Amino acid sequence: MSERPSAPSTVLVTGGAGFIGSHACVELLDHGYEVIVVDDYSNSSPRVFARVERIAGRFVGAVYELDIRDRRALSAVFDRHPVDAVVHFAAHKAVGESTRMPVTYYDVNVGGTTALLHVMAEHGVRSLVFSSSCSVYGEAGEGPLDEDTPHRPTNPYASSKALCEAVLADVCRTDPRWTVLCLRYFNPAGAHPSGLLGEDPHGTPDNLFPYLAQVGVGRRPRLRVFGADWPTPDGTAIRDYLHVMDTVEAHRVALDRLADSSGMTVFNLGRGQGSSVLDVLAAFERASGRTIPHEITERRAGDVAALVADAGAVARAWGWRPTRDLADMCRDAWRFQQLNPDGLQGEPRRPGTTKQYEGAGPCG
């Protein structure tokens, strides 16, 4: 196997059972890649792969349940498969939880990344697409943030991603054989338009969209809005939401571009448009036809007022831009929740048949 494949064909996806990872598997399979997945299912389920196969028309090449920090188990995967490149999603990602469990977040996110790099180097695989986060910018200031904006992380999750980026930059500086494309995406949301794949976290959702959807079907009584005293027009936090299908399309384009790249390159992924929590709430009510009860609570530890992307660099370099808007995200997230009221554990319902929880209003 060559040190730098001209066209990666077999791709290892870490965290491939997760929200973004599972959608990435579909995108890669649809574009002819062979996909190998490793995941520990800490916030996902192996049941997702039957749905991936149903959408893509073919199954991933192999799936391994393992902890990304287990170098021996990970090395065995590389021994069995001719991996050309890696897309690294596997990580803990809840901002609030990270403030309560900082050591775990550094161990899994940074330790998992360094373990992966060791194993990749041992097997001569030095092409990586890294899933980073806009959270590294933290309290960086107002206005769209470009890739040169200084890092000011405000929580252990964000700090762990910033540390991973620093490690990757050092690796590329010391060994020119490495190619790393680091994608700092803002807030992925929505679901696959089929309604077969979507965000289904274990326990209480940490992200806005699955929480809204669960309130919409009556699984939860109301949305908790973390603070209405932020320095924003309506007092609620502003984020740049990006459809998950746009997110994974950008990762696939990154894989396509690996052969034309060298060293480490960082790109923001976002729409360049900020939406407040109340903006998203209103859009979701329009998409679902339901009133979503909500309550204002205290700010969440580690949050910031606003994060909006300047994503001009990736557009200039690759000609890539997201094509889906907030209404698309709300529509697709709602479709997923309607067809899967209990998440990914059951069989998806047929369109037009929805489960009604006690206290839930009629479908719109």
From TrEMBL:
Any single GO BP term: galactose metabolic process
Gene3D superfamilies for the chain: NAD(P)-binding Rossmann-like Domain, UDP-galactose 4-epimerase, domain 1
GO molecular function, one term: UDP-glucose 4-epimerase activity
Family: Belongs to the NAD(P)-dependent epimerase/dehydratase family.
Record Pfam families: Epimerase
Record text on subunit structure and interactions: Homodimer.
Isomerase listed as a keyword: yes
CC terms in the record's Gene Ontology section: cytosol
InterPro entries according to UniProt: Epimerase_deHydtase, NAD(P)-bd_dom_sf, UDP_G4E
NAD-dependent epimerase/dehydratase domain mapped to chain residues: 11-270
Signal sequence coordinates: none
EC number(s) from the headed UniProt entry: 5.1.3.2
Stretch list, region Disordered: 340-364
Highest taxon of source: Bacteria
SUPFAM superfamilies given in the database record: NAD(P)-binding Rossmann-fold domains (SSF51735)
Associated pathway: Carbohydrate metabolism; galactose metabolism
Cofactor(s) in the UniProt record: NAD(+)
Name of the featured protein: UDP-glucose 4-epimerase
Entry keyword Isomerase: yes
Catalytic activity from the UniProt record: UDP-alpha-D-glucose = UDP-alpha-D-galactose
Keywords: Carbohydrate metabolism, Galactose metabolism, Isomerase, NAD
